[in-house]
Amino acid sequence: MRLPGGPARFLKAHHLIAALAAATVAVACITGFAWANKRVTVIVDGTVTEFTTQSADVASLLAEAGVRASANDLVSPGRGTEIVDGDVVVVRHAIPVTLHFGDERILLNVVGRTVADALVAAGLDPTSGMQTDPAVDSPLEHDMEITATDVFIRVAQEEVVIPFDVVVVGDVSAAPGSRKVTTPGVAGTSLKVYQVLVVGGAEGPRFLKAQKQLVAPVTEVVTLGTSNVFRQVMVSRGQSRPTAPDVAGRTIKVTSTAYTPWDPSCIGHTEFSKGFAWVAAKRKSLGIPDGWGIIAVDERVIPLKSKVFVEGYGYAIACDTGGVIHGKKIDVCFWGADSNAPSSSAGTYAQVRQARDAAYRWGAAHRRGTVTVTVLGK
Fold first, then answer.
1. Which residues lie closer than 8 Å to 294 by C-beta, 6 or more apart?
2. Which domains does the chain carry?
3. Which pLDDT band, with edges at 50, 70 and 90, does 286 fall under?
């Protein structure tokens, strides 16, 4: 008798399908586990760590990695962000510090590395020249005390008075000792601009940056009666040193030398008549009164034709210059024992010797010291 083969073949196919289904489920489970693993880079305060994780979001990843982060700390991306393969998660912990600024005491949780970051967190500009202790580039430490002092430059301006000068002019036609103000003096004004360093609200030193004259001062001119002829009183044995008369004028401290008309630096030769002629020409051209002397000056300090009184020499006219007369220095001229000596060619060799002796004594007396010159005017 022949047995039917159909049912046997059906049973075999059924078992094969079941086996294939079981294998598919197993592969799916293995593959699904592999797909759930993600490689993520975690950077905590600059320290880099790589993780393989099945965490779904950043918060789960940090819990798995044992990284604690408070609300003051920086977590990027945010805690609720879904994790995907290749993500980079950054955690920066806030550092608690105390900032002292003026009268304020500010508690800060700073997500940063340096004192400059703490200033920024407090709303201050670390590039404005502010002074800090510790310095702005110092690394932050937990519970650090920071002192910040505001430093800035303030511009200030001030209007100041310019005093007027007084010039005294001799008048030979007026009574001796009489005094008259012919041009009243008027003070001027100028504007000064300062830069003021302000540190912590307190003004520091001032630096003058600009000055502008607003109103020019007017020089006061005083006329002094001098109808008497002034006579020189020269320094010599047994005589006292003359001092300036009781007249106003601009005074200058100078060094002094002396010369004669016969010095090589003056007329360049020793013929005595030439020297007397030189003095006579000077006195005539400038109207130098009898008894007045002649001095050489630096005209940038004492203008030429100025009338002066030289301590120890007497009245004189600034009517000469010299190659070595620079700055606050004068050279007084002798053509005899004093300035009352004859200045015409009728002079004698004895007078030349007296002039040279007087110049020598003057130079010896003033080699290391200074003299006072009172400038009376032109």
1. 279, 282, 283, 288, 316, 317, 319, 320, 332, 333, 339
2. 38-92 (3.10.20.30), 95-149 (3.10.20.90), 153-223 (2.20.230.10), 229-377 (no CATH)
3. confident
